[in-house]
Amino acid sequence: MSASPSSRRLILTRSAALIGAASTGLLLPEIVRAQSGKVRVGFMLPYTGTFAQLGVAIENGFRMAINEQGGKLGGREIEYFKVDDESEPSKGIENASKLVQRDKVDVLVGTVHSGVQMGIQKVARDSGVLSLIPNAGVHAATRSLCAPNVFRTSFTNSQPTLALGQAMVAKGHKKAVWITWKYAAGDEAFEGFKESYTKAGGTIIKELGLPFPNVEFQALLTEIAALKPDAVACFFAGGGAAKFIRDYAAAGLKGKIPLYGSGFLTEGVLEAAGPAADGIITTMHYSDSLDTPRNKKFRLDYAKAFKAQPDVYAVQGYDTGLLLIQGANAVKGDLNNKPALYKAMEGATIDSPRGKWTMSKAHNPVQDMYLRVVENKENKVIGVAAKALADSGAGCKMA
Ligand code: PHB
Hints:
This is ABC transporter substrate-binding protein. Pfam families: Peripla_BP_6. Keywords: Signal. InterPro entries: BCAA_transport (IPR051010), Leu-bd (IPR028081), Peripla_BP_I (IPR028082), TAT_signal (IPR006311). The protein is α/β, with parallel strands linked by helices. The protein is built from 15 helices and 14 strands. It has helices spanning 5-17, 19-23, 28-36, 52-67, 92-102, 114-127, 158-162, 164-170, 184-199, 218-227, 238-250, 270-273, 293-306, 312-330, 338-346; strands at 39-45, 78-84, 107-109, 130-133, 150-152, 175-181, 203-210, 231-235, 259-262, 281-284, 349-352, 355-359, 365-375, 378-389. Strands 6, 7, 8, 9, 10, 11, 12, 13 and 14 form a nine-stranded mixed β-sheet that branches. Strands 2-1-3-4-5 form a five-stranded parallel β-sheet, sandwiched between helices. A hairpin with a 5-residue loop joins strand 12 and strand 13 (365-375). Helix 5 (92-102) runs parallel beside helix 6, helix 8 (164-170) packs across helix 9 (184-199) and helix 14 packs across helix 15. The chain is globular, with a radius of gyration of 22 Å. 49% of the residues are buried. P-hydroxybenzoic acid (PHB) is lined by residues 112-114, 135-138, 157, 185, 237, 264.
């Protein structure tokens, strides 16, 4: 048990003052927590729906990082709590509150979907709980609504696509159609694409969209065939991405109109998409084929532990674990020592399978973006599309 003297005093004072309430059982969770001394880690992730696999990969990656440290954080045992957020924005606040109010987690790890993240962001800002974002790229989380207790280990939605436009124009594709799910992640990915593609001299001839998580792509693919662009660029992910890739080929577009995307399009879906994915070019802060000892060891260890191939989501979950470990070690497990905890996390360099990255002032990774092509069920790196790319952090008062 490693509660700091001040938090121990707080627990004792509260226990004494509310002894009556304790006898009713109302205070039990707090007392149990104080006695066990375990760090309470809450996963709020999608375990059902089109992003279910993403949630599992993130949790696997996180646990792997912790298990490499003997399963402890700053010397303390860990107790895990889980909520399936179903990628359902309307339940975001309620689900985050379950972990923070009911389960009294010290750290909330979540989530994947940008709309759901906005619910977590509100609860994190209101409660002050340490919030680690292992995927969702919604700009506001590390821009206008940034907060000292919120750290992202993944990307902002426009980061991968900011590296995409230039790469497409360099291949001679001057007229493009953009297609996505119409919600924050797709809209903000478009912002990055538009900026980079038009700056490089490309013209976006049409923006197409459908509501998340709809996968009825047929009418839109027919429209693309009629528009005859030089190339198509998109944001899709998870189960929906696998279907988009298959439908694109089935509509006869593969081989005729090259398909590009932010790299989520081809992450974790290459088995499900099959040969239809071959040749798709994407930009992303990770690639399966990165030829570094760090990445090779990570891939081998992950495959052994989980009998599955890791993807960018597994890497982001792993890096979330690495960041928390660095913070927890700096405060010897006393996560209540917030100034020192945040300072250590802000100054951390994460030795990630994606390559080393650092935290921006707004708490978002500064990282390289790779250009990749799908070959034989692998995202093969073919270049670096952007070096040490930082999000603008626009509107973040900490920055
Ligand atoms: C998001 O909603 O922010 C999101 C979801 C899935 C991804 C990337 C971003 O792969």
